Amino acid sequence: MQPATPDTVLGNFAGVEYEHNGVRSQFSQRDGQFFVTTDGPDGELAEFPVLYTFGVYPLQQYLARLPNGRIQTVPLSWDSRGADEGGQRWFHVYGDELIDHRDPLHWTRLSQNWETQCADCHSTNLVKQYDIDTDSFETTFSELNVACEACHGPGSRHRDWAQAPDDSADRGLLVALNERAGISWVLDPETGNSRRSEPRQTDTEITTCAPCHARRSLIGRNEYTGELLDSYQPALIAPPLYHGDGQVLDEVYVYGSFLQSRMHAEGVTCSDCHEPHSLELRAPGPIVCLQCHAAETFAQTDHHLHPADSAGADCIECHMRPSTFMQVDVRHDHSFRIPRPHLAQQFGSPLSCLNCHSDQDAAWAVSVFDAAGKTPPEEPVHWSVMLAAAGALPLEARNLLLGVAVDTKAPPLIRGSAMSQLDLSNDSLAATVIGERLQSSDPLIRYGAARALQTAAPAARAQFGPAVLDDPVKAIRLTAALTLAPLGAEVIPADKQARFREVLDEYVATQRLNAERAESHTNIGNLQRYLGRADLAEAAYRDALRVNELFVPAYVNLADLYRVEGREMEADQLFRAALELLPEQPALRHALGLSLVRQGRIEDALPELRFAADAPDATPRFALAYALALDAQAGSADATDYLRASLDRFGDDPSLVAALANIYQRNGDLDAARELAERLRR
Predict the structure, then answer these.
(1) 144 plus 253 within the same structural domain
(2) β-pair partners for 645
(3) 30-47: per-residue pLDDT in tens?
(4) Cα separation of 474 and 231, whole Å?
(5) Do residue 77 and residue 194 come from a single domain?
(6) Using CA atoms, how far apart are residues 512 and 518, in angstroms rounded to an integer?
(7) What is the SS3 assignment for 164?
(8) Rounded Cα distance, 593 and 595, in Å
(9) Given 319, 340, 361, which residue is the final one in a domain?
(10) How many domains in the chain?
(11) pTM for the complete prediction?
(12) How many CA atoms, within 13 angstroms, populate the side-chain half-sphere of residue 51?
């Protein structure tokens, strides 16, 4: 991040124009300043001065100031690659997607705000200051860009050490990244792999890199405790951020994939491969891998199945599948996984082979691997296969996810992620298994278990939840607020009551760190509702809509609060006001349809429920609601047909299978009902 000057701006601001989806933007320069003329908050063309540049290669973005202290990311970016690579041009970071000023992703809205989306990782000692009453920012930072103290902590102790040096290993640094000091990698000639001369004792380096190289949310200022989960909640490994087998799908950066890898398990740290101050590889391309993996073993045709001098003999392209983000930015999955064509063929998982062999398919790759004797063993089943199967086979998901959860050979992040995907509401056995994992020494396992516990029946929550209140790690401790609040304070042991109140206050304070985000106010509203404080819940939901009038969950949760309080007509009016802003939003149409059903207006509800159920991103729950309303209005024949089609679309979703079985049973078709019930039982 740099001030926009002739020395830092790479884009062509010589009065050029760029048209995207009907908006003709212009880039100009005068008196040493740079300007972008494009569609503003009201959809009308306006001129915006560029304050800062953001990034250098392969693209450069530009930041402009809007009223109330907001700094926003202009969506038109400069492709700084060479012209021979297709660069030296303006482009829109969302490609051909139509995004106008009413869209939550429009550049003038919060999703493109520097303070909340970018600054924490691109400036040093950022203090985000947002005032909800004035809807304005007064954010401060010590240094505009990433500097020494962003990674090593406040530098005063190091300054003092420099004035009077001694032999202390940390040289006065609060965070001394010296995990590689005195370490070597010793080659095993039999396997061609190397082992660390001494086991890695801490994750300090990874924890230092992770806040800016992970998909995560802020829960506290960085106190340099050495534990990521004291300051951030990392995204767990699950769709839609990751593919079913754990490979990168969305823009999740590298922390979540690296912690899946055998490299991490064997003690590799970021700086084994990257020079930490530049992030440049320590050796070019696949040669960086040959630091620890013998070329005599791995840079051979019988390993990589390519001619030795071909471009396909590239460790990185095979074991670190690339994805392109922001249209031109190619990034590599850091799970360093073995390509699994059999998994790709069975469950549609991505396969790195097909990035180069784009005219082939997974079946072709299976035949190549089988012919080379590289068919994976049937036992033991790798955790990635079990994860992918859990996503593709809903009726088997519970056992598969439990299998991963208790697999001590699976990475802790994967085990925690598998637990977090479990529904424990009607499963006391699984709840007990997960509850036992709350005693794990690994925080990622405890975090996944604590997240899963939120879905458990009240008895299991009451049994295991109070212990979570005392977890030393903040992200885990905070889950206890949402686990225990719905139960009522009377179920909390007397010796935990004060601690429970402290954690509730800690949860609210954590949400207020992101007071500019509607998500945070909605979370506070949900907590207050669980505690029976309807007035505070309503106020929090209203705050959410005040900071973001397009935030759908706030409408849905507020309307549901109205439903519980018998204020159905207010819920109806709220949905109709929301649909004025978001007429195509399936969740709003679904919720309005349910409200109309409760009002006894099933005929009016059907088109709303049908719209939601037929949406491209519909869930089985949407399809179920429409089918049940259809059954009530038009009869079981129409509902049966729709449920069958929904099973074809969504697979064996348990709620859809059960609904269809119930209709068959009610109509006397016991054979069909019994067949479906048996599928559920299995």
Answers:
(1) no
(2) none
(3) 999 999 999 999 999 999
(4) 7
(5) no
(6) 10
(7) coil
(8) 5
(9) 340
(10) 2
(11) 0.93
(12) 12
